[in-house]
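Quick review question:
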């Protein structure tokens, strides 16, 4: 057995609008309220393709201390240059790490709750190099 992809992760937030906007407007998730079951507490499920990967629970106070050693969440992604341009256009702080020898491009960003989000883009190193050479 091998893990193939992230299933979901859950965020407790007192800033639901900002959090949903970050994941939808910045990272491209889709909020589909009617697909989230009624759990008896307010929240949202944010989808990538047809899978709810980010679960958000609304709380009155952020319980950051309760998350223990949670460090970051990583997503497989594509469109490295487009993502960098989107972050630049939106004024989002991020850190890019390029490892062409591994054909791996990474972007590190924080959501409004200071959760670290890692985006791993594989298979685009040659495309990025060619685009840069053309400019």
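Suggested answer, residue by residue:
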């Amino acid at each position: 057995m091998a893990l193939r992809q992230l299933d979901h992760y859950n965020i407790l937030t007192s800033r639901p609008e900002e959090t949903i906007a970050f994941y939808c407007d910045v990272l491209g998730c889709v909020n589909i309220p009617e697909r989230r079951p009624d759990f008896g507490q307010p929240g949202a499920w944010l989808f990538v393709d047809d899978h709810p990967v980010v679960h958000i629970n609304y709380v009155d106070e952020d319980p950051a201390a309760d998350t223990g050693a949670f460090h970051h969440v990583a997503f497989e992604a594509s469109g490295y240059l487009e993502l960098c341009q989107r972050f630049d256009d939106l004024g989002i702080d991020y850190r890019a790490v390029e490892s062409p020898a591994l054909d791996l491009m990474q972007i590190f960003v924080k959501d409004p709750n200071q959760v670290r989000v890692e985006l791993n883009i594989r298979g685009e190193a040659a495309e990025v190099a060619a685009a840069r050479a053309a400019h």
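Why it works: The mean pLDDT is 86. The longest strand covers residues 51-58.
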